[in-house]
Amino acid sequence: MFHVKPTALALLPLFVVSNLPVSAQQDATKLEAAPLSGYSASASSDEREWEAKFRALPSTDNLREDMRHLSARPHNVGSPYDKENAEWILAHFKQWGLDASIETFYVLFPTPKERALELVEPTTFTAKLQEPPVAVDPTSNQQAEQLPTYNAYSIDGDVTAPLVYVNQGVRADYDQLDRMGVSVKGAIVIARYGGAWRGIKPKVAAEHGAVGCIIYSDPKDDGYAAGDTFPNGAYRPEQGVQRGAVSDTNYQGDPLTPGYGSTKDAKRLPIKGNPQLTKIPVLPISYGDAQPLLAAIGGQTVPREWRGGLPITYHVGPGPAKVHLKVAFNWDIKPIYDVIARIPGSQFPDQWIIRGNHHDAWVNGAEDPISGQVALLEEARSMAELVKQGWKPKRTLVFCAWDGEEPGLLGSTEWVETHQDELRKKAVMYVNSDTNGRGFLGIEGSHTLEHFINGVARDVKDPETNLSVWKRAQLNAIAHAAGDSERQEARNRPDLRIEALGSGSDYAPFLDFAGIASINLGFYGESGGGIYHSVYDDFYWYTHFADTDFVYGRALAQTAGTALMRMADAELLPFDFHNFADTVHTYVGELKKLLKDQQTQIEETDKELDEGVFTAIADPKKTSVPPPHKVVPPYLNFAPLDNADSMLTASADRFTKALAVVRAKGDQGIDPQTLVQINGLLIQSERKLTSDAGLPGRAWYKHQIYAPGAYTGYGVKTLPAVREAMEQENWKQAEEEVPVVAEALQDEAALIDTVTALLIASPSVKAP
Questions:
Q1: Helices assigned H by DSSP within 419-504
Q2: Helix (H, G, I), strand (E, B), or coil: what is residue 576?
Q3: 478, exposed or middle or buried, with CB in 10 Å at 0-12, 13-18, 19+?
Q4: Would you give the distance in Å from CA 744 to the centre of its chain?
Q5: Cβ distance 523 to 442 under 8 Å?
Q6: Which of 17, 150, 262, 714 is most deeply buried (CB count within 10 A of its CB)?
Q7: β partners of residue 396
Q8: What is the DSSP string of 297-323?
Q9: Tell me: the pLDDT tens digits for 693-729?
Q10: Model pTM greater than 0.85?
Q11: E strands, 542-586, where?
């Protein structure tokens, strides 16, 4: 579900300040000897021993056999095998000695009862809308159990209209169509996957007056232009289709229960007119079905960057192609089964370290999601074995196998909404995974955890190179740096920067709604392919073209499991604010640059417009319809944000210096009573970055630093309330939201200062 690009950064840790800046050549044994962040020297030594024992336990054989079982049949929401898998996972958790149960929710999950797509002018063609079985792939022939190719949460519809090609169907593409003088009003649009989450395409199409939307996978992106197609290679075959949800971006979870759990007796919104459903009918198709439709479109040829990989000349339209699109759905409420297991904390049972991966799939789902789910299972099994050997985590570990992720993060969201009050008190960290391949470790997450997760990555070996997964990621970041500055940063920063989280997997309700610091992990880069959300994402494909020997599944289990243990056992929770403050400062600078770029662009547009008007007066034959003037204020007051940014940086610096004093005291540490107070505050640090009111127009999204974009879907928008208002040229709203974001940063700075004061005042830290 995600693709992440590691870059670089971090600085000083906590309780003991370890992993200080080191050169790439420094002996790794010195890092291993340094106390872990959040640990005294003696506790660090014990923790490293337990972690080493843990990392020896995950088994590639178990990973393979668990995947074989869980992906043996289609297991979409509402299917018999979905429930069977949940019960199988539950039985294994219990077999290992974990306290486990299934929580059931009841969600809206439409499935297709009618699908039709045909070209009716100037010639005729009927789309197959079927993924054929492949002889060598034994599970691809389970047609009776496979969900048809469709987009969940499309409305019912039956429309016939001219066809217009809109490239990737994002807002910039419609700006280009405007410049070309092409309107989609009253038309059906055809868009290729990419550029934004699939649900953005019908949303923007409807906003421009289209009456239907077709989405197809172009071979340029994940078909034969990228590599050999399945079964000869990893990439999408001619009739392969990407299923997926297309709900709107107002909130996550069940469309009928926004903000609260979809329990059996929950009050539900009506289906008709629900804000999460599309405004026009939508259907995904293969490039085999798309080619005759695209070939029939006339009109202007497309811009160079719009050209796909099919052996045709791409035209925009409209005409002469006209198509008939019909979709109708069963609008059913279906049960979903979240499997929750716990290892209780020995000292702080009401502080939770949560690990999650979903178990449902669109079809067989070996890569998405079972490659991540089997890693989670090995983590749980291995930690249960450590418990038998005498390990007692200080904090409670919660393992979650989510259902209903594919239609819209249903299982995780409903669980978080149901338990939101308890989670806001108890949840320390959430660690997510989803798909897993092979290659480089990708990390996204809360920047208060950036230094922590870098430290974890330094202690896990890459199975191919015998370097640490951190070092291999660093070398990849250096090799793919955009310029000298980024390259030097990747070489010289003590830690790699992690990407911010948008949406697309089960971390979203934890971070965006509940304000729980979150991390998303997965290996990527060497197992590309084009089977995403198709019948070909199965055990045969995965064991031939992805992590064929499951060594990166083991590496994922080792990485995520080490993170869980290290956070669970820390004396002082290893959150870091220096990295966070640095990242926020970068985001504030990006807003200023965005405004400057917008002002420059509009000045240039106005100049071109004035020149065009002058030309039209001189020569009426050259008259064209000019774009309207855009109004940009001469000044947007960033002062509250600048002040808050400075406060945050100063608070983070004071915190780091106080921790250096703690380190100097060695094993004397912090007195236990103060430590409890400090950890309680640190647990709340991510919550301080949320607002009860949420984002403008999207109140479900509470976080003021990170959110998925309203017009990107998966893609993150940082400082979203201000940034999106600016991007949409809503200057009044941008001005109003600056102090709101500033207040969240000031609240965070105040919390950091309180923690620092407690550190300084601690009897064990005070100077003699």
A1: 420-426, 450-458, 469-479, 484-492
A2: coil
A3: middle
A4: 23
A5: yes
A6: 262
A7: 352
A8: --SSBPPGGG--SSSS--B---SS-EE
A9: 999 999 999 999 999 999 999 999 999 999 999 999 9
A10: yes
A11: none
